[in-house]
Amino acid sequence: MNDKYEGIKDFPGLSKSDFSCLLLAKNKKTGLITDDLKLRGYCENEGITVIGTIGVLRSAYNGGYFKDYETYKRVINLIACDLYLSDELINWALRS
Fold first, then answer.
1. What's the CA gap between 46 and 58, in Å, rounded?
2. Which domain holds residue 44?
3. DSSP single-letter state for residue 11
4. Are strands 32-33 and 50-51 parallel, antiparallel or unpaired?
5. What is the pLDDT of residue 9?
6. Whether 89 contacts 55, CB under 8 Å
């Protein structure tokens, strides 16, 4: 096995690319953007701050990067058509 993937056995179910993202975030002491629940769980266990797509969009809305609330809401609803989003997450996103 390639040395850079030596520790992957400690993270069952992670792909090499997800493991690389986790290591990079940990080594650089930075956060990670991912919607992958398994990767999110491992990152949180390692003390890595994680944000998902909806969190990024909410931050963008709160930062004034959307024309208006209706545009932001349409984007959230469009994403909800393609990804499973719990009602709780949608309500959180729209409670900006």
1. 25
2. 14-51
3. S
4. parallel
5. 87
6. no
